[in-house]
Amino acid sequence: MVTGEEMRQIDRYAIEEIGLKEELLMENAGQAFVNEITSLLDKKTAKIAVLIGAGNNGGDGFVISRSLLEKGYHVDVWLIPPLEKVKGAARYHMDVYLKSGFGLISYHTIANEGFMQQLTNYSHVIDALLGTGFKGTLRSPYKEIIEQVNKSNCSVFTVDLPSGITADGTDVETLMAIKASHTISFQCPKLSSFIYPPREFYGNLSIVDIGIPKLAVIKVSSKRHLWTEEDVTRTLPVRRPSSHKGSHGKGLIIAGSKSMTGAPILTTRACHRLGAGLVTLATPCSAHPAIASQLIEATFHLCPSKNGEIDDLNISNDVLEKRYDAIAIGPGLGRNNNGFFIEALIKGYHKPLIIDADGLYYLKYFLPGLLVRKQVTILTPHLGEFAYLTNESIKMIEKNRFQLSKEFAEKYGVYLVLKGPYTIVTTPEGHQFINTTGNSSLAKGGTGDVLTGMVLALIMQQKDVQMAISNATFLHGRAADYLTENGWNSLSVVASDLVNVLPQVLDQLQNS
Ligand SMILES: NC(=O)C1=CN([C@@H]2O[C@H](COP(=O)(O)OP(=O)(O)OC[C@H]3O[C@@H](n4cnc5c(N)ncnc54)[C@H](OP(=O)(O)O)[C@@H]3O)[C@@H](O)[C@H]2O)[C@@H](O)CC1
Ligand SMILES: Nc1ncnc2c1ncn2[C@@H]1O[C@H](COP(=O)(O)OP(=O)(O)O)[C@@H](O)[C@H]1O
Ligand SMILES: [K+]
């Protein structure tokens, strides 16, 4: 997953160091694009306008136009800049296109009025206006053209990325871009396809291979990766026939309060459902009766209660360490007490620690403790919690999710799970793994509590912490996808549904 600059470096390496010709990569890009879209076009009825800009994105547009015309599609090619502005590999492909006997309409000579009139004749637009070279805000005439296309009824296929969107997803506030129904991106997904609101302009996204050697991508290692289904099936823990409950982890969940009894239930159930051997819930004694009636499999550690919340854990770090392999703290904890026990855990519990929800609220006061902590720490904030932890605005975080979460994880030496659509898991070394499962049915109270239980379950069952977290995040989103694909309306999915369908989701994965 790359920024615009990283993509340029990859292209440059492939061209200058490996010796692939730019014209060849452009030919591959155009042909790969055509292969991807022809099944979506009816040759008899589709009337296609290819809009071509001055750069290499426009060059791809010439290859696409030539290929579609050779195959017998109805295509009009609109060259937006004056002919002489087209240079380099794009020029080469423009010449090949023209010498193949095909013509073009010069927007430059017809101007916007003519373009507007003709746009109504087309069923499809192929947007080869601007690609990774776009910067700043849209200039004339691209701005007017894009406005017209967005107002039209045409389906838009975009080349590499929607014109008007930067590859890095910056300039979110001034966003004005072509609204695509499909985007076909070349070789590597661009960062902005995983950031909202730019993602909304992409429509359906496909990534196609254009023949850039893997070495070029490795050389420009971006430290950002998608965590795919293949990764999950390759790395999910397998239960040995000889195993016993102790082999699958003894976990402690510190959660719940008198006014939030659901959160600890969801976390504990999710932890059990994902294979944890033994799960104990530490909860205030005032909330215990309501919670215990809903949890048959768990054991309990009752804590003194103040204001309906845990006042003290009433157990030493030594004992915690002997009894439990990992701890998750936070769901439904409340914010009325002082949270000092979180500081004690950060400093004195020398095993993996997950901090979520209200635990993160308290953590803000104890952040320096993370700088000295040597053991695995996992934080699972949503955007609002991360904004609170970093003193940034939510807008700022949204715009710079990748950069800010990387800085934070590296600074404090933690695994940071920045939740939301396309949850990012960042390791203390700054490697980022992006989750693509899940949908807006998850935007509902309690779903984060489920994730925390799932993360706890998997970090106790597999050694590699990033894999465990990414797998939990993938399965959590997949549970939501399973529900909406199997008859649940996305409005009515609730957090406990996710826990209930985990067996089917796991089954589907293990038998795929
Ligand atoms: N390199 C390779 O090997 C391969 C690259 N490939 C393809 O190349 C694409 C990248 O091509 P690229 O770098 O030429 O840039 P591109 O996006 O076409 O735009 C440049 C033009 O946009 C203009 N422009 C900029 N900002 C603007 C604004 N705000 N408003 C208006 N105009 C603006 C800018 O004008 P200027 O600022 O220079 O005056 C210039 O004319 C990439 O996305 C992929 O599709 C594939 O073929 C595979 C092989
Ligand atoms: N629109 C969305 N698309 C995909 N996943 C989402 C979306 N909205 C929320 N989620 C996921 O749902 C979960 C919500 O967590 P959180 O906000 O902590 O909920 P809560 O604290 O109420 O349990 C996270 O895992 C997040 O990634
Ligand atoms: K484009």
TrEMBL record:
CDD domains: YXKO-related (cd01171)
SUPFAM superfamilies linked to this entry: Ribokinase-like (SSF53613), YjeF N-terminal domain-like (SSF64153)
Pfam families per the UniProt record, alphabetical: Carb_kinase, YjeF_N
Secretion signal span: none
PROSITE patterns the record matches: YJEF_C_1 (PS01049), YJEF_C_2 (PS01050), YJEF_C_3 (PS51383), YJEF_N (PS51385)
UniProt-listed InterPro entries: Carbohydrate_kinase_pred_CS, CARKD, Nnr, Ribokinase-like, YjeF_N_dom, YjeF_N_dom_sf
A single MF term (Gene Ontology): ATP binding
Gene3D superfamilies the UniProt entry points to: 3.40.1190.20, YjeF N-terminal domain (3.40.50.10260)
Biological process (GO), any one: nicotinamide nucleotide metabolic process
Protein name: NAD(P)H-hydrate dehydratase
